[in-house]
Write a sequence for this structure.
């Protein structure tokens, strides 16, 4: 290895001499000498490339699915004073967005560069070595963008190194020296990178290059001590049978990325016979807290938490933040409270709504919904109340289990709704109880697999107009001859489900819907069961459009044996029809719309 | 007489509160309106109180014991309306 490289690296990334081997590939060690050869080759190749520029500094983009090559490229880039950009993927659109040299994957650093390039590269490599300080922005990453557009985050070498040291301080004490790190998560992101790349590098521990893809891969690991860097999506598939554990001796597992259910953590610990820690943190702050099972969160060494009083948001003070950031701390998007045992996280701040004067956590409502028998997955959707413009109500969109679906099929939806609401009452504030219930096979999602707010709201689009009783009358004394009349003023909600796509540029109220509404209100006010009658005398004369305010007149005749309905707009008839007794050979009329 | 008023009040509740998929027959006239049963909340109780005062010309005191008695069930509410309505 070049002296300059050794000096430079030692200055901001001192590799302990004891790293031996650096990594394991297919059960074989990659020794330190091979690592240095690869590093040298990568440096020469890199020095021959014209770097790009990001926030005014020379840079390259690195994407490599192979963890060992990734480390070699990363260290080579740093040793040349380059900022290494870590894109989340290497899709063409991402490559277009980052016009700079892309290294990794296709580019084999083993290939020797042309002789004249070699000289220039060697010269540049000499220059690059020494003049980089700890503040050197070694990495540029992008946040996951789950809250919107991905944001660019810079990390200095000092910050990265501090995080690696923090992890060793928090977890490293109990680990035997040659403990191997194995991972099931991508090493490009702000969980895999510090836990699977930087920590072992810094603590002189080897990594296993092959990523674990399936639980069976655990069985194939050779006998050794291991740390497992994983995520709930993998851990929840760990088998229950300990005899399939294989020869690995597990010392520790860490999980991040999504919430780790306590039962998944417990099963993981039983299978691995090692502690499973859930990690809380963010791209901005790095690792901030850890916990086992559903214990309260414990701050990582040097990290302090505050809960902002007005917003209940968690404020993180961490040695991993830059000095400027460290002053005020990092205001996270997570809600929290501190109790005597430690930190309790309460979900995302943007998932908090106010109903009445009460703060309601949508995350909490969803968790409670998902715990109900018969419910598999749940989303809580805040909806404006159609009647009172100043209050929100919650809608529940649920994917049911097979048992749940069977129960829903067997009873009326209203009763099923009520049974769920009743079960929730024990656990939620009355204001947080969902008022609208929708049962779906799967949540609507776009081509990116994301469920958008708009798609969810559409699920709750009203099916009925708002009705105001203008007049009612009753005539005829004899029970069989009684006639009852009802006049309703209808208000059509703007987002009425029936206008959607009927028709795309000319929304009109479908005729079958008008029949259905007449049947609905007849049942509502008179207890009239339209399904037992035939339709007769249907006439559609004028269209009803979204801004219209039609009136519906219902006339119950002959003591309930016939019902006439008509829709009018400013006294002008739009449509009319009647439900008449089924007897006789009346012309069959489609009953599709009559099931109220 | 009271039956008609009970039906009317059920419709009034459903409309005033925008209860979805609930028909008058679904409401048990003897079941509590708040807490169990219909599961109305504190905002609903205010809405309903204001709406009833307007519709029937009632005075419903802010005193919580009395309110609890009046809203104990649809039947209790109907009895109170029948006895105190001014229009």
């Amino acid at each position: 290895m070049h002296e300059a490289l050794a000096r430079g690296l030692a200055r901001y990334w001192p590799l302990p001499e004891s790293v031996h081997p650096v990594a394991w590939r297919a059960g074989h060690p990659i020794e330190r000498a091979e690592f240095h050869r690869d590093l040298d080759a990568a440096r020469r190749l890199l020095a021959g490339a014209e770097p790009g520029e990001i926030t005014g500094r020379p840079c390259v983009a690195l994407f490599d699915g192979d963890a060992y090559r990734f480390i070699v490229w990363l260290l080579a880039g740093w040793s040349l004073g380059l900022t290494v950009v870590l894109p989340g993927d290497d899709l063409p659109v991402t490559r277009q967005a980052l016009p700079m040299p892309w290294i990794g994957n296709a580019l084999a650093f083993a290939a020797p560069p042309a002789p004249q390039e070699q000289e220039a590269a060697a010269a540049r490599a000499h220059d690059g070595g020494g003049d980089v300080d700890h503040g050197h922005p070694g990495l540029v990453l992008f946040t996951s963008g789950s809250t919107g557009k991905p944001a660019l985050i810079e990390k200095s070498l000092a910050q990265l190194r501090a995080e690696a040291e923090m992890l060793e301080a928090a977890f490293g004490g109990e680990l035997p020296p040659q403990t191997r790190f194995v991972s099931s998560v991508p090493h490009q992101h702000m969980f895999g990178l510090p836990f699977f790349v930087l920590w072992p590098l810094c603590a002189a521990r080897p990594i296993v290059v092959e990523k674990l893809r399936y639980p069976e891969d655990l069985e194939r690991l050779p006998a050794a001590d291991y740390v497992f860097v994983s995520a709930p999506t993998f851990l929840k598939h760990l088998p229950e049978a300990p005899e399939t554990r294989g020869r690995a001796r597990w010392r520790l597992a860490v999980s991040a990325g999504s919430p780790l259910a306590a039962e998944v953590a417990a099963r993981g610990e039983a299978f691995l016979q090692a502690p499973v820690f859930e990690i809380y943190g963010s791209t901005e702050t790095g690792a901030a807290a850890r916990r086992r099972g559903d214990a309260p969160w414990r701050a990582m060494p040097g990290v302090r938490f505050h809960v902002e009083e007005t917003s209940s948001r968690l404020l993180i003070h961490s040695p991993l933040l830059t000095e400027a950031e460290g002053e005020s701390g990092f205001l996270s998007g997570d809600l929290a409270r501190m109790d005597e045992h430690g930190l309790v996280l309460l979900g995302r701040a943007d998932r908090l709504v106010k109903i009445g004067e009460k703060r309601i956590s949508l995350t909490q409502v969803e968790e409670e919904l998902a715990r109900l028998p018969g419910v598999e997955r749940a989303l809580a959707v805040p909806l404006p109340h159609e009647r009172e413009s100043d209050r929100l109500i919650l809608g529940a969109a649920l994917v049911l289990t097979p048992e749940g679906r069977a129960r829903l099929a067997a009873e009326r939806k209203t009763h099923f709704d009520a049974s769920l609401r009743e079960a929730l009452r024990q656990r939620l504030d009355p204001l947080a109880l969902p008022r609208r219930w929708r049962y779906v096979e799967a949540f609507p999602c776009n081509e990116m697999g994301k469920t958008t707010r708009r798609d969810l709201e559409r699920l709750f689009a009203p099916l009925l107009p708002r009705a105001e009783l203008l007049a009612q009358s009753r005539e005829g004394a004899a029970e069989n001859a009684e006639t009852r009349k009802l006049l309703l003023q209808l208000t059509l909600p703007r987002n009425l489900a029936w206008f959607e796509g009927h028709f795309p540029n000319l929304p009109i109220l479908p005729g079958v819907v008008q029949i259905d509404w007449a049947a609905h209100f007849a049942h509502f006010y008179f207890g009239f069961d339209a399904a037992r009658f035939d339709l007769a005398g249907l006439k559609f004369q004028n269209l009803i459009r979204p801004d219209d305010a039609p009136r519906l007149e219902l006339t119950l005749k002959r003591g309930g044996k016939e019902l006439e309905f008509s829709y009018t707009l400013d006294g002008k008839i739009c449509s009319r029809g009647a439900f008449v007794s089924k007897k006789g050979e009346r012309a069959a009329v489609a009953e599709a719309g009559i099931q109220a | 007489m009271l039956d008609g008023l009970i039906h009317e009040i059920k419709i009034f509740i459903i409309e005033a509160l925008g209860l979805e998929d609930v028909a008058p027959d679904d409401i048990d006239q003897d079941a509590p309106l708040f807490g169990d049963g219909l599961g109305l909340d504190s905002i609903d109780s205010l809405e309903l109180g204001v709406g009833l005062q307007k519709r029937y010309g009632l005075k419903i005191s802010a005193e919580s014991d009395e309110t609890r008695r009046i809203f104990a069930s649809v039947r209790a509410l109907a009895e109170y309306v029948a006895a105190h309505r001014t229009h």
Chain B has a mean pLDDT of 81. Chain B touches chain A through 23 residues (CB under 8 Å). The longest helix of chain B spans residues 2-17. Chain B has four helices and no strands.
